[in-house]
Amino acid sequence: MPPAAPELISPRSPRVSAARRLARRNFRGKERLFLAEGPQAVREAAAHRADGTSTLVELFTTVEAAERYADIVDGARRAGARVHLAEEEVIADISTTVTPQGLVGVCRFLDTPFEDILKAAPKLVAVLAHVRDPGNAGTVLRCADAAGAEAVVLTDASVDLYNPKAVRASVGSLFHLPVAVGVPVEQAVAGLKDAGVRILAADGAGEDDLDDELDKGTMGGPTAWVFGNEAWGLPEETRALADAVVRVPIHGKAESLNLATAAAVCLYASARAQRASTGCRSVTGS
Q1: Residue ranges of the alpha helices (H) in the chain?
Q2: Residues 46-67 pLDDT 10s
């Protein structure tokens, strides 16, 4: 049987126009919708539900992608999403990538109120205090997910969580753990401290060394890591809010680590220390 003819012929279709506008932050905020591109992100979006409602609203797919990723398209339909078969030019018009993979989903916002994160008594949190680059934000979110963090907080001084580049860089992790957005850094730190969470600011010029912190055995309790801008680090007023300002030691000749790499090192160090305190030797197994 020949494949079904695409349903959306023109990039000027109202549905396509509505999806294309979501590349702009003001439209995302107004509609409380964002774009998720590629098979991994769409698969996770179709599986994600909040308050009994599917996060995936619509799926635009080429005929070729619908055949290649038939399980993802079926999952989208089961989630109640409207599935539109489209010409490649339509997908290219909606997509924000240079080489689209043929799947673009329209998703509902899924950020979590900061108060709900505190109520869950998290043991490991990543706070993005002044992170402006969307690729960095998405990658840190992915690192937090991989390390087993229970929440991520983006302050009001950080990039939009739903920026297409941030969504892509998270590689689906956006759909895995609670994320609070727009929280003033002072409020984030105060709330976490009140919840019994120790605040560690990651900074290359930190007074404390990560290796020393591990040796002292101070990292086994609930911890929030505060990460700043890759170019200029954390402002002094933000550093002053932390219980300790910690640097990742550079044992070789590298000038520094980029933000995402440093975040991965810090989060995994906490994850290992916390698992060791409960009798688990590794962050990769029991």
Answers
A1: 14-20, 25-31, 39-47, 63-68, 70-78, 88-94, 114-119, 134-147, 164-170, 185-194, 210-216, 236-239, 259-276
A2: 999 988 889 999 999 999 999 9
Provide DSSP, 183-207: E-HHHHHHHHHHTTPEEEEE-TT-S
Judged by DSSP in three states, 279 sits in coil
Residue carrying structure tokens 């109640």: 80
Q: b/e string for 20-42 if b means 16 or more Cβ within 10 A?
A: bebeeeeebeeeebbbbbbbbbb
- Which residues, 6 or more positions from 283, have their beta carbon under 8 angstroms from its beta carbon? 147, 148, 268, 271, 272, 275
Q: Do residues 164 and 23 make contact, with C-beta atoms less than 8 angstroms apart?
A: yes
174: amino acid identity, one letter: L
Characterize the bridge pairing of strands 103-108 and 33-37. antiparallel
Amino acid at 69: Y
End-to-end CA distance of the chain: 49
The pLDDT tens digits of the residues spanning 143-187 come to 999 999 999 999 998 999 999 999 999 999 999 999 999 999 999
pLDDT in tens, 242-273: 999 999 999 998 888 899 999 999 999 999 99
Element (H, E) at 129: none
The angle formed by the CA atoms of residues 116, 224 and 163, to the nearest 5 degrees, is: 70
**Sign of CA pseudo-dihedral 111, 112, 117, 118:** positive
Pairwise CA distance, residues 80 & 269, whole Å: 41
CA distances from 33 to 25, 72, 131, 229, 242 (A): 10, 20, 22, 27, 34
